C-alpha cells in the first residue's frame, strides 16, 4: 500500500470513528487491512495536519484541520472566541489558556497563518505559548487578540 492510499484510509477512519490515540488509530487501520508502524502514522498525522479536538459530544478525538474557504484570520478569531479563556503577555511570549483539549487545535491555526510576529507555538492540553521575535511583536499580538477574549 502506498502513502496516498494509507493516508486516504486514515482520513476516512478519522472521519467515521472517534479515534483518540495513535494505538486506536493503528488498531483501526489493521482492522481495515492496513499494516503500518507507529512512526509512519506519526508522520502521516503531521503531514495531514491531524489535530485533537473535542467533538460535539465532548469526546476528544483526532480530526483533520481544514483551512478551507473561511479566511484564516476569521477562523482564528472565531476559534479564540469559542475556546479561548484568556491571554497573558510575558516579555516576548503570550500565554493563551483554552478550554480543555483545545490547545493543539488553536495552535495549529496560529501556525498556519504565519504571522511575522509569531516565531512559533508550543501547545498543551489547555495552554498555548506563543513565541514572538521581540517584545514589540508580542505586544502587537496581545493587543490584537485581547479583545477576542472580552
What does this protein look like?
Strand 1 (50-54) and strand 2 form a beta hairpin. The strands form two sheets. The protein has a four-stranded antiparallel sheet. Helix content is 46%, strand content 21%. The model has no long low-confidence stretch (mean pLDDT 85). The chain folds into two domains: 3-64, Orthogonal Bundle (Arc Repressor Mutant, subunit A), CATH 1.10.10.10; 72-149, Gyrase A, domain 2 (2-Layer Sandwich), CATH 3.30.1360. It is built from six helices and six strands; from the N terminus they run αααββαββαββα. It has 150 residues and is an alpha+beta fold. The chain has helices spanning 3-16, 22-31, 38-47, 72-83, 103-113, 135-146, and strands at 50-54, 60-64, 84-90, 93-98, 120-123, 127-131.
Short description:
By secondary structure, the chain is of the alpha+beta class. The protein is built from six helices and six strands, in the order H-H-H-E-E-H-E-E-H-E-E-H.
Order of helices and strands: HHHEEHEEHEEH
**Would you state the CATH class of the largest domain?**
Alpha Beta
Report the average pLDDT across residues.
85
Distance between the termini: 50 Å
Spatial sequence of strands, sheet with the most strands: 3-4-6-5
Shape: elongated
Question: Strand percentage, roughly?
Answer: 15-25%
CATH architecture assignment of the largest domain: 2-Layer Sandwich
The total tally of domains equals: 2
**What is the tally of helical segments?**
6
* Cα Rg: 17 Å
- Class by SSE composition: alpha+beta
| Beta strands, count | 6
Helix content: 40-55%
CATH topology of the largest domain: Gyrase A, domain 2
- Low-pLDDT sequence parts: none
Q: What is the subunit organization of this protein?
A: single chain
The major β-sheet equals: 4 strands, antiparallel
